[in-house]
Write a structure and sequence with these properties.
mainly alpha
């Protein structure tokens, strides 16, 4: 038996190190923490634009039309100067034998293009000048100006809103007379819907203010 024990050793018990290695390791990852130095966004780092850089449609239209008109005038003068030089005969050529190559269709097309560009540039500049003189910068300004000009003295004394209501009633009556009662009823229902939506919006604004 002693020899058998000597040649056949006992089964070795697992060491504690192997137990620890066999156990699964759980890795805990900590979520990234936001730095405490992060400051909230405020208007200090994104200031509003100064008054000089505020976009003005009328002024931009006026300046753009002026630059466009200057460019079209320069292009027209250059084309006329080129045509005048082409009409002059060269140095050792008599005037009766000078026959420059002329294409009537091409020249007519070029003249039409130059005239169109000049008219568009002048219209753009004049429109910008009128809008700048009347201090009209948006569609709302244009509507306000037209309403103020179309109201009578009595309506102006009543106020702008009263005049608008009278004008809307006249438009509804005209639509009902010309286009039919159905269209007039639809227009009246649409106006009432717009008035109710405006009243709801005013009510929500007052609740927020409270």
């Amino acid at each position: 038996m002693g020899l058998l024990r000597y040649f056949i050793p006992d089964q070795q018990k697992p060491s504690p190190s192997t137990d620890t290695s066999s156990t699964p390791t759980t890795s805990t990852t900590t979520p990234p923490t936001t730095p405490s130095s992060a400051r909230p966004a405020s208007t200090e780092f994104d200031p509003p634009l100064p008054k000089l850089w505020t976009p003005q449609t009328n002024l931009k239209l006026l300046l753009g039309g002026t630059a466009f008109l200057a460019l079209t005038v320069f292009t027209t003068r250059r084309a006329i100067h080129r045509r005048r030089l082409a009409a002059i005969p060269p140095f050792y050529t008599s005037a009766p034998y000078h026959k420059p190559s002329v294409s009537g269709g091409v020249e007519a097309f070029e003249a039409l293009n130059l005239a169109t560009l000049n008219v568009l540039a002048f219209a753009m500049m004049s429109t910008g000048g009128v809008l700048y003189a009347m201090d009209i910068n948006s569609v709302e300004d244009m509507r306000r100006y037209v309403r103020r000009a179309s109201l009578s003295e009595e309506d102006a004394a009543k106020g702008l809103e009263e005049g608008d209501r009278e004008m809307e009633k006249e438009v509804e009556a005209w639509a009902a007379k010309v286009l039919g009662e159905k269209f007039g009823r639809e227009l009246r229902a649409q106006r009432e819907r717009e008035v109710s939506d405006a009243e709801k919006g005013d009510g929500t604004e007052t609740k927020k203010g409270e």
